[in-house]
Design brief:
This protein is mainly α. The protein folds into two domains: 39 residues; 39 residues, no CATH class. It is 46% helix and 0% strand. The longest helix is centred in the N-terminal third of the chain and has 22 residues. It is rod-shaped, with a radius of gyration of 31 Å. The C terminus is likely disordered.
Length: 104
């Protein structure tokens, strides 16, 4: 089949392009929204999975039930630090080392 054998297709295509150039809302819906969604989803799913994140558990209640809950939530591979009986000097969250896994 020759390129110019079906002129009806090109007439319809030209008419649709002219319609899109006149209707800005349709132009944005057809090209803008998918492009925006592609950019947002690319940004969201391009970040790697966070692994090795330090977790600190502070048991302010110090009751048996809170200790039991903490024991259930801590995986065996996580190192535990002993309980501090006296109140240490107040430290900001940034001063806690990244190696901190749990504080009871």
């Amino acid at each position: 089949m020759m390129f110019g054998a079906n002129p009806g297709f090109w007439q319809v295509a030209r008419r649709e392009v002219q319609w899109l150039m006149r209707d800005r809302v349709a132009l944005i819906l057809i090209f803008g929204v998918p492009l925006f969604a592609f950019v947002v989803l690319t940004d969201v799913f391009s970040n790697p999975v966070i692994r090795g994140l330090g977790v600190a558990i502070v048991d302010a209640d110090r009751s048996d039930s809170s200790r039991a809950l903490i024991e259930l939530s801590i995986a065996p591979a996580i190192s535990r630090r002993p309980r501090v009986t006296s109140a240490p000097a107040r430290r900001s969250p940034r001063s806690i080392s990244r190696q901190t896994s749990s504080v009871i």
